[in-house]
Each structure stands twice: as C-alpha cells, then as structure tokens.
Specification:
Oligomer: single chain
Order of helices and strands: HHHHHHEEHHHHH
Helix content: over 70%
Number of domains: 1
Distance between the termini: 59 Å
Shape: globular
Number of strands: 2
Number of helices: 11
Length: 275
C-alpha cells in the first residue's frame, strides 16, 4: 500500500542505507547484514518506552492476580457481577487491560507493513536494479549508492530462505528457524510469572482457568509457529526478528529478572550441584 511505503518502508530504507554507507566508509565487511542488525536495535530503542509500559502493565496484572482469583471464586455464578468487580479492581490499581497490546501492535505494523517489505526490496533486487531502484527512494543525494551492495551475510544470502538453502547447505541451515523458535520461547517464558503464594489458599477444586490454559498453550505453540514460518522467510527477515527478540529478552531481564525462567534455572543449578 502506498501509504505504508511513504510512512514506513521508504523512511526505513533511508535509515538502512545511511547505516550501510557509514559501515562501508569504515570498510566493514557484511555491511548490509550489520545494517539490518543496527537498524533493528534502533527500532528497539525507539519502542523502548512502549515496551516499558507493556512490562509495567504485566507486572500490575500479576500483582492483582490473587484478587482476581478470589473474585472468580466468589462470583462464579454471576459473570456480570464478576466483570464489574474486576473492572473496579483494575481501576483501583490503575490497570488498563489494553495497555499491554499497544507495543505488540506497533511491532506487528512495523514488521509486516514496514520492515518486511523494506528488507524484501533491498535484498531481492538484481545488482543492476539495486542502484536505480534504491536511489529513487533516497531523500538525499549523499546517501545514493554508487555500486550494488553485497546481499550476503556471513556467507548466507539474505534474500534466500532456509527452505531454499536446505539442498545446498544441508541440515545446518535448519538451525536458523530452531534458534528463532528457541529465542521466542525464552522471551515468552520470561513473561510468565510463577504462581503467587496467595493462590495456595484457593480451594483445590476450581473451574479450569481459560486464560492460564491459553497462556500455557501459547508458550509452546507460538515458538513452533514462528520457527516454521521463519523456515519460509528470508534470512534477512530472520536476522531482524532474532535481533529484535534478543534485545527484548535483555529488556525483560532488566525490568523483571528471569521471570518464568527462574524456576527452570534453579532446577538446573540444583542438578549441577547434585542436590
């Protein structure tokens, strides 16, 4: 769509080319791949306030979870009253249930309508087309390319998918979607906080918690889905996604520590110590 080209794709390509020109000036090899990494880090910093807001909203929801559980038990026969009490609880603690969705929505918009078409454009052009097409998009003359760039990164063509490279490289190329899925799993697991001690006081026989069931399923399903999708996505896009996820893990750790991974880490440490 023309509006996304104007608002997202072309500005991102201009920033990407600016970074590329700087790296090329300092004779850094694999400049295009490193440009993708650096622009991803830049996007992460730009979205940092939204990420902080999302994590804080998640923390607030975790703090009131014991209260929500008691409300569910108290008003299990009156869903309308339960909803009213829950909204009052959210208001009392300053929680906006929709606040955590904004960063994810922004990321999806940037990825699907901005970065994905931008990456596809810059890495899939033929060498003779690169200068002509990219230079038309650039805002300033000093950014314009005077040669076609190398679309390989550490020996891998950024425009190819792991599926396309499987026959020539072999099973090793599958490590890319596996790493992508693993990083997504780590980030998702970190956002799931272990049950609060207050929940022990709840009755043993409870109705199945739909939210918890969905959360548990998504913990394993989402990484698998993303891993499968990344097998059919270009190496360049996987480079963006994995860089974005790694920095998300770092930010999550800075604000909440290991989160849901803490129990697993403790178990590993106990196994190492022989306890």
């Amino acid at each position: 769509m023309q509006i996304f080209d104007t608002l997202l794709v072309h500005p991102l390509i201009n920033i990407l080319v600016a970074i590329y020109q700087i790296l090329t000036y300092f004779h850094i090899s694999n400049a295009l791949g490193f440009s993708i990494i650096l622009i991803t880090v830049l996007i992460r910093f730009i979205l940092y306030p939204f990420t902080v807001s999302q994590i804080k909203a998640s923390q607030k929801m975790q703090n009131v979870q014991p209260h929500i559980n008691r409300l569910k038990e108290k008003h299990k026969s009156d869903p309308k009253r339960m909803q009213q009490e829950q909204m009052a609880l959210f208001k009392e603690h300053g929680i906006n249930p929709a606040a955590g969705c904004l960063p994810s929505l922004i990321q999806i918009v940037i990825l699907l309508f901005g970065f994905y078409p931008a990456i596809q454009k810059v890495i899939n052009l033929k060498p003779k087309e690169t200068i002509l097409v990219i230079n038309k998009i650039l805002y300033f003359d000093f950014l314009k390319l005077n040669h076609a760039w190398d679309t390989n990164f550490l020996g891998l063509p950024l425009g190819k998918t792991p599926g396309e490279l499987f026959q020539s490289i072999g099973f090793l190329i599958v490590l890319i979607p596996i790493i992508t899925a693993l990083l997504q799993f780590i980030q998702t697991k970190m956002t799931i906080i272990p049950p609060v001690a207050d929940e022990v006081a709840m009755p043993k026989k409870q109705e199945p918690d739909f939210a918890k069931t969905m959360q548990s399923q998504m913990l394993y399903m989402m990484p698998v889905i993303i891993g499968v999708v990344s097998y059919q996505f270009s190496i360049g896009l996987s480079l963006y996604w994995n860089t974005y996820t790694i920095f998300g893990i770092i930010q999550q750790y800075q604000m909440q520590g290991l989160g849901g991974l803490s129990d697993w880490v403790k178990k590993l440490e106990s196994l190492k110590s022989g306890k």
